[in-house]
Write a structure and sequence with these properties.
By secondary structure, the chain is mostly beta strands. The protein has a single domain, classed as Beta Barrel (YmcC-like fold). Helices cover 9% and strands 49% of the residues. Strands 8-7-6-5-4-3-2-1-15-14-13-12-11-10-9 form a 15-stranded mixed beta sheet. Helix 3 links the parallel strand 9 and strand 10. The chain is globular, with a radius of gyration of 18 Å. The termini are far apart.
Amino acid sequence: MLKSSLFVIALITLSGIGVVAQKPDIRFDRPPIAVSSSKAPFLVGEKLTYEVSWQDFLVAGEMVIETKERQNYEGVDGYHVSVQAESVGLVSAIGKKIDDSYESFIDASTLLPFRAEKNTRHGKKRTQSSVTIDQENRSARLNDGRTLNLPAETYDLASLLFAIRWMNLTPGKAQTFNALEDDRIYAIKIEPEAKERVTTRAGVFDTIRIATRMADRANDKLYNLRLYVTNDQRRIPVLITAEPSWGSVRVQLISVTPSLRNDPPSKAAK
């Protein structure tokens, strides 16, 4: 079971429901994903805050995506990014408190993660874990001492969202990403679908709508989950929608630091 997916972090951490998936047939020899570090949307100090709601009216939680810093980590020039999600309001009061944090350290030269940390709280249960990733030798060392073999270009959950922000977003150009969660690897297919204008509490945005599914299961659409990122250089995720069996989920951007207010409106999606 894939306990949490970056696109559904709010969904998974606030509901405790995982995405049911068989272990995929990972291709260890797949060609690398072409990225350009000069165009990567890493802006130190960027903080994106989201409101998570169920059925379009019940505010259930908050999610924050942040690029915290860039510095030398044990000889590696890297970015420190994070994704945090917690339950709030009525959901937190009547259900079990959720407070999850995913931290990733990304090599500035390759834009691939070399370390990941996870801290979760689900009610009274707390867990901590970490993994050191050797992309060159395709291996990962878990904090319990175990070593895993990895396919080329493997991402942890936090770095995966940043990887999607710098991928080719031409509609119809799908790509498959390998995601490491605990001690398992999952292949997730990411497919830009179309340009679309969306509205959130942070404003009106011209976006690219992106669909997700498990790469080895054509009918597994990950709760019919869609990610909307701005059709500009910053590639800001402004909206995530999903349709699990128990209702609809909407994760909408409510604030951005630095602000987007001084940016000229995009004309590309008209």
